[in-house]
């Protein structure tokens, strides 16, 4: 797929997903799932099998992995996961290209915000720890830990942003981010370094970039076209 400056040139706002898009937390998510798998007697996941199975709502993802949600409530599993994840998330680095992408968007006159399935309080805490909080106009997380759907939160954020939703770019790393953008009328861009494989993202026919730095380049350059191979990932 291709990402050209023309796709971005008329944009007024850029909204980023957080987990897997700006913060490189895939490795911790895999460890967290396996932390739960060990406790509840489920086969552990690999990095690759996690990316092939991951989906929203998160309860369906756990069911797909073999967790018996009739025997053990999903709320118990997700709280056990988050106890581990939240304790270690400070160790997760930002993806390469985060600061460059934010700066390029600001130079282009765009506002920059976040829409995440993370609990809002934890999201703000982590952004503050990464010295990023003040860079965003709006920071919108969810009010619970169930990570069911971000569409309602996206609609609220669009009301805050105002204007034509087609002038908002939403950058995420999952098919759900693609669905959220389409539901609100935003222009979706998916990055292939997060929680779902490039092959799954490309199958959606969404605009897919190989890494976040490609977005920074496209925001900066007037004539370059950033290309991402139809199926191959190096």
UniProtKB/TrEMBL annotation:
Keywords: Hydrolase. It catalyses: 2-phosphoglycolate + H2O = glycolate + phosphate. It comes from the Bacteria. InterPro entries: HAD-like_hydrolase_sf (IPR050155), HAD-like_sf (IPR036412), HAD_2 (IPR041492), HAD_sf (IPR023214), PGP-like_dom2 (IPR023198). Pathway: Organic acid metabolism; glycolate biosynthesis; glycolate from 2-phosphoglycolate: step 1/1. It is an enzyme of class 3 (hydrolase). Its EC number is 3.1.3.18. Belongs to the HAD-like hydrolase superfamily. CbbY/CbbZ/Gph/YieH family. This is phosphoglycolate phosphatase.
């Amino acid at each position: 797929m291709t990402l050209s400056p023309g796709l971005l040139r008329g944009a007024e706002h850029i909204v980023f997903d957080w987990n897997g898009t700006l913060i490189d937390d895939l490795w911790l998510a895999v460890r967290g799932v396996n932390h739960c798998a060990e406790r509840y007697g489920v086969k552990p996941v690999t990095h690759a099998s996690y990316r092939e199975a991951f989906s929203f709502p998160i309860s369906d993802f756990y069911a797909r992995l073999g967790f018996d949600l009739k025997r053990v409530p999903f709320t118990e599993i997700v709280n056990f996961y988050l106890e581990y994840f939240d304790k270690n998330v400070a160790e997760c680095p930002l993806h390469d290209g985060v600061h460059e992408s934010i700066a390029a968007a600001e130079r282009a006159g765009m506002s920059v915000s976040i829409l995440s399935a993370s609990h809002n309080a934890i999201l703000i805490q982590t952004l503050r720890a990464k010295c990023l909080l003040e860079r965003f106009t709006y920071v919108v997380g969810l009010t619970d830990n169930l990570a069911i759907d971000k569409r309602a939160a996206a609609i609220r954020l669009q009301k805050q942003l105002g204007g034509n939703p087609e002038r908002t770019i939403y950058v995420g790393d999952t098919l759900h981010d693609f669905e959220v953008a389409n539901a609100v009328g935003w222009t979706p861009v998916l990055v292939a370094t997060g929680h779902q494989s490039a092959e799954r993202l490309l199958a959606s026919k969404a605009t897919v970039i190989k890494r976040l730095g490609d977005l920074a380049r496209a925001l900066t350059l007037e004539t370059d076209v950033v290309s991402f191979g139809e199926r191959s990932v190096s």
